[in-house]
Design goal:
Layout: H1 13-26, H2 30-34, H3 40-50, H4 56-69, H5 77-93, H6 98-101, H7 113-125, H8 135-148
Length: 149
Amino acid sequence: MFSIPESQCTTRYFHFAKNIMDYAERKGLRDAYSDPESRELYDWIRTFVLSAMLPEAVFMERLYPFLANNVPAGAVQAQSQSITEVAKYISPYWIPRRTLWEQYQNDGPRTTNHAEAWHNQSRILFTSQHPQLGLFPKKIKKEITAQAL
């Protein structure tokens, strides 16, 4: 198996947050989350998502017990059940895997925006979808030289 010594694997913050939001949306909570009159569900979900920026000790000792004991009540019974399902999804799936999504000491990128920007820029370098094989290294070398200046 291939491994890189002293490396740490983390999920991208964007993907972690999107996964939580997608699950809540699949449970039919989009309107409750976006409701400007009641920010309770919005605050609860965002607090959990933003907790990725906190040290694990602070999260486990203070914030997680607070979130677990303050699951928002839904305006209607169906919402309440969906909110409870989101809370039940978070606890066994995300909490034990905290080291994968924690961003507290992550000095690297938290998104893949830099890679996506590079790929978008490469469309400018290559005017055709399938450039000639010999052209590819020349263009890449030219781009690297230009960035080094």
